[in-house]
Design brief:
Length: 128
């Protein structure tokens, strides 16, 4: 049964892998045959090696972003978090992660949902 400590440990491991881009850190948070959906309607990337390859092909530099998160729900072996990712030189995203865990707290299935935040409109609309 998944609890909040399981979800927190996974997210901390994910953040470690995101910052390091080290293949071992990436493998450590997924089961050998895990499915990773980088977007909800895409076919999953399956297995350690393919997950590592896709991750590193789209890697983010460690000082290019900030991430804040909170747990939303836990049901059986599934945890859901809501997050906000700010890319300093790009856009900011709202995220929803759905994570199905194995008994050791690794992800068997991971799906990212994300949506860009609207950009601030700096134009003055009060022109008469």
């Amino acid at each position: 049964m998944v609890d909040s400590a399981t979800v927190e440990k996974f997210v901390n491991g994910y953040l470690k892998a995101w910052k390091s881009n080290d293949p071992e850190d990436i493998r450590a948070i997924f089961t050998e045959d895990a499915e990773y959906r980088f977007a909800p309607f895409e076919e999953p990337v399956v297995g350690h090696e393919d997950i590592v390859t896709e991750w590193l092909d789209g890697r983010d530099e460690p000082d290019a972003w900030d991430f804040e998160w909170q747990p939303i729900a836990i049901d059986g072996d599934t945890g859901i978090i809501e997050a906000r990712t700010e890319y300093f030189d790009e856009q900011t995203y709202r995220n929803l992660w759905i994570i199905e865990f194995d008994s050791e707290g690794r992800a068997e299935s991971f799906t990212e949902w994300y949506m860009g935040e609207p950009e601030d409109d700096d134009e003055d609309d009060s022109d008469s």
